[in-house]
Every structure is written in structure tokens, then in C-alpha cells.
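ok so I'm stuck.
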Amino acid sequence: MNLLVRNTYYVMLSRPRHNLAIWFKDDVTKKHVAEIFGIALEESMATADETNIIVGNRNNKSYHKANCRFAPSNRLKRVEFWSVEEAINASYTPCQSCNP
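replied:
not stuck anymore, here's the structure
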């Protein structure tokens, strides 16, 4: 089974065109995958979860909380930021509904 997991993630991690991030729902799986690949988790990545992510809309240059109903689900419109400051520096404006 470890060989299957290793090969699957090798393909995922070796073929991205741009940045690639993998989110895990639980810490056990995250630590297991890191153990298989022999990598140390960065502190910022280990504590980040989807609720901390700021989602931007490329079309109207607004940013939202990840769970906002106005956050774009279409990958072509969606931009993800690690912080509000990063979104502001990219000239995005806050959503009037969720006030991130």
C-alpha cells in the first residue's frame, strides 16, 4: 500500500504547472504522507487549515473567507491567499458580505 501511495503522490507532485498544495482533513494522514516522502512539514503549513485561507476572485478582484457563499468555486476565477495582507498587496478588495 505504501508503494501505491508513494507513486500516486509522486505523480501529483512531479507534474504541476504552477504551485501545488495538498490539504489534508486530519493530521494523521498529513504526517503519514510526510513520513513516506521523508519530508519535514513547515510550521506554517502544518498549522494552516482551509478556514484560514483567503479566496480571491480574479474577475472582480475581491477576496473572501473560504466558506463565504460568494467565494468562487471555479478554478479559473479562484485565487488563494495565505493572509488578508497578501490579498490586499495584490490589489484585491474585501467582500462586503463575509468581511474577511
